[in-house]
Design a protein that fits this description.
Elements: H1 5-14, H2 21-42, H3 73-77, E1 83-84, E2 87-88
Antiparallel strand pairs: 1-2
Length: 97
């Protein structure tokens, strides 16, 4: 695909770039080469390649979430530095104002 100088001026205006005539001519060839390469990449046959979200197949490495008996409340707070009414006692961090 070959871009015209008007195309390059339009892209420069969209990008809010102030380009001189010599820069526009240089960018015309460079942008045309970039678009030609993008077209070539688009020609790759990918019809038999399934879409993927990751290059390697990922599996969940966590165990199944199954209910089990929990620690009794008295045993949970038994080793706490401070406990009150079967709960952990922690310093207040939010004012009640």
């Amino acid at each position: 695909m070959s871009l015209s100088t008007d195309d390059v001026r339009h892209v420069a205006r969209l990008a809010r770039l102030a380009l001189g005539d010599d820069e526009i001519v240089a960018l015309q060839a460079q942008l045309s080469d970039i678009l030609a390469y993008a077209e070539k990449v688009g020609e790759v046959a990918t019809g038999d390649v399934p879409p993927t979200g990751h290059a390697y197949p990922l599996a969940d490495v966590l165990r199944d979430d199954e209910p089990r008996p929990s620690l009794p409340p008295d045993a949970a707070v038994a080793t706490a530095p401070q406990a009150e009414d079967g709960r952990f006692r922690v310093p207040r961090i939010v004012d009640e104002a």
